[in-house]
Write a structure and sequence with these properties.
The protein contains 14 helices and twelve strands. It is an alpha/beta fold. Strands 1-2-4-3-5-12-6 form a seven-stranded mixed β-sheet. β1 and β2 form a beta hairpin. The protein is globular.
Length: 321
């Protein structure tokens, strides 16, 4: 597997190409950043599960969910790992994107700078988010509201994905932010404080999903099915306890952290974040729709989750295992 940096005004990105044989079907995959949320992807690449399915997966790091969504929608990528709410909003604006597979539930630590001991201490402070209207920012707003903080009591600072939010909090550009493992563990080791976890408030909310365009899926049906099958195989492997040590080595090869942090990340990710078998929760997707309705981004009557989901590709991939 090789890595190179792509140039271009639209995206600053890294390309990861699997070493499968010539003739394999290419899949241009977009992810936002390197983090434990991509663990099954890392496993699929390291263990050759995509290669065995006859697909070559080229992964571009977009560093921004908004840039990724725009590029995915116009065909620069074939599949995007993206927050479910982004796909829903895109569809409502006329996009042909749809959800094919689930990836993660939101299990972000709410990490605050030293000296901040309660939500009230965030009043008047800047909080790091990917984008002010993203699904995870909406969850943060709802959590803050439960603790008496309304919009206007704080400022949302748009900085980008997990890595960028980590840096913003670490350097005190922001007083707090939603940070995923292992970056939250690094901050805790440096004296930063935890104000809780999004999973405490939204345990079934559908977070990240794999999405693609209906036209691409129709024209590349078998490729999409094979991609899903390779990813689900990796997910099954990752959730097998006997593979824990090797899984940690794979993560350490992709995300900078120490071994103790990797071990803690494994326990947290499997218990709270990663979704077994990458199966979409219709109820979890419905919660996303309800949150968008509550914030005025969807109007009643609220659409059914099936408007944004086509499970046939996933079902076919599972039948072939």
């Amino acid at each position: 597997m090789t890595r190179r940096v792509l140039s271009g005004a639209a995206l600053a990105a890294g390309l990861l190409v699997s070493p499968s044989a010539l003739g394999a079907e290419p899949v241009r995959l977009a992810v936002i950043s390197e983090s434990a949320s991509n663990w099954p992807l890392y496993v699929a690449q390291a263990k050759g599960f995509f290669d065995k399915e006859g697909v070559t997966v080229q992964v571009t790091l977009t560093r921004s969910s908004a840039k990724q969504l725009e590029a995915l929608d116009k065909g620069d990528f074939d599949i995007g790992h993206q927050a479910a709410d982004h796909i829903i909003r895109a569809v409502e604006k006329g996009s042909e994107l749809f959800v094919v597979m689930a990836l993660n539930r939101p299990a972000f630590s709410i990490v605050a700078a030293p000296g901040i001991g309660a939500f009230e201490d965030l009043r008047g402070k800047a909080l790091a988010v990917d984008g002010a209207a993203t699904g995870y920012a909406l969850l943060l707003k709802k959590i803050l509201a439960r603790h008496g903080l309304r919009e206007g009591d704080y400022t949302l600072k748009e900085v980008g994905g997990t890595n960028e939010r980590y840096e913003a909090v670490r350097t005190r550009i922001a007083a707090a932010g939603l940070i995923s493992p292992p970056f939250d563990l690094k901050l805790f080791a440096d004296g930063f404080k935890s104000l809780g976890n999004t999973s405490d408030y939204f345990p079934h909310y559908q977070g990240s999903v794999a999405a693609t365009r209906r036209s691409w899926a129709s024209a590349n049906r078998e490729t999409l099915i094979r991609y899903i099958r390779g990813y689900v195989t990796a997910s099954d492997w990752l959730f097998e306890p006997r593979n824990r040590a090797e899984a940690i080595e794979i993560l350490l090869g992709r995300v900078t952290m120490d071994r103790a942090q990797a071990g803690a990340t494994y326990e947290s990710a499997l218990a709270k974040a990663l979704i077994p078998k990458a199966a979409v929760s219709v109820d979890g997707l419905r919660q996303v729709i309800e949150v968008l309705g509550e914030t005025g981004q969807l109007r009643p009557p609220l659409p059914a989750p099936e408007k944004y989901l086509d499970p046939t590709y996933y079902t076919k991939a599972r039948e072939g295992r």
